[in-house]
């Protein structure tokens, strides 16, 4: 399925039914009086967050959504029926805003919670409504009120606990495939990932977290270069960013430190709040670095980057170092959600000691 995270739709609520002007006409009842009923209320348009949806593809092609009008009132004291309205099911994390004013209408963060998008019009009054002791034969009636209609912009920001960040070919898709149930496309060329991927990482039967993988960033992404800037919004709801660094680039002239600094620079340009999120450095592709050179190269990397936060060394291909990383992530995410991890392993306490430090300690100095 094609991934779509933006769409524009028109929502039109139903108009209320018209009131009826009618009088009772029966044999032997010469003055039956008014009996015209009111019109029914028009249908409203609602939005509901659905856990089973992960893209806005349905709203890319079906752009206009109209609710039915209310029924007109009838004689014999019959009121028009109200319309039930329509419900639009959207992925969790969708932000709905007015396309003309930019005002945010709603955010779908709670599953199955109904949010009113456009209210249906009230029904008009029939002449029965105007009957009084002094006006026994009213001939007034009112039309139904029109329903609300808006042009809405839909923007999907996936709900994930952890976001993967890095240059193209840093191994983000390989990592999410190794630790979760996601199966993204993996190839040996840059920009293989064209849309975000979500994966659920199982630490234990009742311990899990969600990871989001977005297309790689390149220098100049904040100005529109590459694809990654289009999907950075999906990282704004995450609790933790994993900054993957290709520690064994195929070109010897490529400097991992320079690439890491470029990512940090683009993050800061795009969104300050995203830049200040807790971020851990993950040095990937350690299987391609000789074991006798690893420690020296890692120390040199940290020194040149002036990094004070947590650093993990892994190989997503062979899963070396992935287990400590997974457990450290879960412990960090669980602490932010006020969840006490069951049977915490003391071996991983040292891995997250620096995860709650201030923003200056959790980001590199470009």
Would you write up a description of this structure?
It is a single chain. The chain is of the alpha/beta class. It folds into two domains: 6-156, Distorted Sandwich (Spo0b-associated Gtp-binding Protein, Chain: A); 162-352, 3-Layer(aba) Sandwich (Rossmann fold). It contains six helices and 14 strands. The strands form three sheets. Strands 10-11-9-12-13-14 form a six-stranded mixed sheet, sandwiched between helices. The longest helix is centred in the last third of the chain and has 15 residues, at 256-270. It is rod-shaped, with a radius of gyration of 30 Å. The two termini are 39 Å apart.
> What is the topology, as strand order, of the major beta sheet?
10-11-9-12-13-14
Strand count: 14
Q: What is the multimeric organization of the chains shown?
A: single chain
Elements, N to C (H/E): EEHEEEEEEEHEEEHHEHEH
Rg calculated over all Cα atoms: 30 Å
Under CATH, the topology of the largest domain can be stated as Rossmann fold
Question: What is the arithmetic mean of pLDDT?
Answer: 80
Give the strand content. Answer: 15-25%
Question: How is the biggest beta sheet arranged?
Answer: 6 strands, mixed
Strand pairing plus helix content: what structural class? alpha/beta
Roughly how much helix do the residues carry, as a percent range? 10-25%
Shape: rod-shaped
Kindly give the count of domains: 2
CATH superfamily of the largest domain: P-loop containing nucleotide triphosphate hydrolases
CATH architecture of the largest domain: 3-Layer(aba) Sandwich
């Amino acid at each position: 399925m094609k991934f779509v995270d933006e769409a524009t739709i028109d929502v039109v609520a139903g108009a209320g039914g018209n009131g009826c002007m009618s009088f009772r006409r029966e044999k032997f009842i010469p003055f039956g009086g008014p009996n015209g009923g009111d019109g029914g209320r028009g249908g409203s348009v609602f939005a509901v967050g659905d856990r089973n949806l992960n893209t806005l593809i349905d709203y890319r092609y079906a752009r206009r959504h109209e609710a039915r009008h209310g029924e007109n009132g009838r004689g014999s004291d019959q009121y028009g029926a109200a319309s039930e309205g329509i419900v639009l099911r959207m992925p969790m994390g969708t932000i709905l805003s007015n396309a003309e004013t930019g005002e945010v209408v709603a955010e779908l963060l709670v599953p199955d919670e109904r949010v009113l998008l456009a209210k249906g019009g009230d029904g008009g009054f029939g002449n029965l409504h105007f009957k009084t002791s002094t006006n026994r034969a009213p001939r007034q009636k009112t039309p139904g009120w029109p329903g609300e209609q808006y042009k809405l912009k839909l923007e999907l920001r996936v709900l994930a606990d952890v976001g993967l960040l890095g240059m193209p070919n840093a191994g983000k898709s390989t990592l999410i495939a190794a630790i979760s149930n996601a199966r993204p496309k993996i190839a040996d060329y840059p920009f293989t990932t064209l849309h975000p991927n979500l994966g659920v990482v199982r630490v234990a039967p009742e311990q899990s977290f969600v990871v989001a993988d977005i297309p790689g960033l390149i220098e100049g992404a904040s100005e529109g270069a590459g694809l990654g800037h289009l999907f950075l919004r999906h990282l704004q709801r995450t609790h933790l960013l994993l900054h993957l660094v290709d520690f064994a680039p195929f070109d010897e002239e490529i400097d991992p430190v320079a690439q890491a600094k470029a990512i940090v620079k683009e993050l800061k340009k795009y969104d300050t709040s995203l830049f200040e999120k807790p971020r851990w450095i993950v040095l990937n592709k350690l299987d391609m670095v000789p074991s006798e050179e690893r420690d020296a190269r890692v120390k040199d990397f940290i020194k040149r980057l002036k990094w004070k936060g947590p650093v993990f060394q892994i190989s997503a291909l062979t899963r070396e170092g992935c287990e400590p990383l997974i457990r450290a992530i879960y412990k960090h995410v669980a602490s932010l959600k006020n969840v006490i991890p069951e049977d915490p392993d003391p071996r991983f306490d040292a891995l997250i000691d620096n995860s709650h430090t201030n923003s200056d300690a959790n980001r590199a100095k470009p």
